[in-house]
User: Fold these one by one.
Assistant:
Number 1:
Amino acid sequence: MMRPAKFALDFLEGQEFEGFTRGETWNGFACPLFTREQAERLAEAWRARGHEARYDAGADAFTFQMDSGGEEYDTFPAVEADGQRLYPVGASCWIWDEI
């Protein structure tokens, strides 16, 4: 069952993002799901750290640059979860902490 939760990344220290969890983990780290608004907020924080981050309306997905000036990107398309359209930004690949 999905429940609301707050999440943080060391890379974006001091910032919290509201999302949802099903209690799943990847290598012991949280696997969050975010509303579009929270994913946009996360993309803004990502850009403030010097990395590219964008939303592609045609694909309904968020893409994040993993290295400044690098060519590695992670893309997270929307998923349906409990009747909501959510974005699993960093789920199963980033080091998210549920706080």
Number 2:
Amino acid sequence: MRFYTLFDDTGQYAAAALAEHPDALELHLTVLRFGPATVRALRADMEELKRMARRLGKTRIVGLRVEPGSEADPRWPKFTRLFGFTGQRVLQAAELRLL
């Protein structure tokens, strides 16, 4: 897994991690602030990520996020569609608490 810090003209706007699978790149993204400048920067970074995925022979990018509760965030589908993602679905996850 590779880790990235994403910046725009005003500073860091997101943190990302990428994992490589045989046919896909798995993208974990945490957006730290949101607004028009962030959307523009993220769109540019997504274009670079798509170029990277194509160079690696990947057929898709899978975007994931961890929701802090047990309910899905209703904003997630709209947010991901801004960047061309489709097929939004609920993903089940489990957590192992360390004491």
Number 3:
Amino acid sequence: MNTHRPLPVDLGVAQPDLFADDLPSVDESFRTAHRIALDETSWIEHVPGWLSGSEHLLREVIAGAGWEQRERWMINRVVTEPRLTAEFPDLGDAPVPMLHKVAAVLSEHYGVPYDGLWINLYRDHNDSTGWHGDWPTCKRDVCTVPVLSLGATRRFLIKPREGGRSTVLTPASGDLIVMGGRCQRDWRHCVPKQTGTAGARVSVNFSSRFQATREPRGKSGA
């Protein structure tokens, strides 16, 4: 179940300037990448400053995505998700051409054909997402899921599925977070609410139809 609501206008984000000199670009060398082994089969990678000109891209995405505020059942009642969402199962439908370039670079680097987008807009410090794994887009045991952060810095937490200590990252605008290995099976992640004020943040999640299909039964390793 979901409902469509107009984009909130008071986000403190100006319209994109197509003639600005800070147009976005990515670091195809991934030189700042730092990988953390969460366990023997799961890892998370943080690439600080991977995309420059992130404010321009933030404005483009907010202006062009076409946002929904979704509702879902929780136990015995309907709740409104505390964030806005835009979904593009076909990357070709995404309204921001730069995201096509970003997807191509990620596909080349991680060896996964990224062909879809799931975008969240956290309007302020009150918006959040609870503990979850990306099961709808990761039906295989091993997946690689890149998430590009734009806008305000927010905490990103990841912890074992069965409970335990959280690993905390604070991606800034233009930073890339990549979850790999068995992260979506064995770990859960979230973006919690925060007590201090925060501006708008967008997370761009890159998905792949290849990873969204289950592995054939009886498949054996080489």
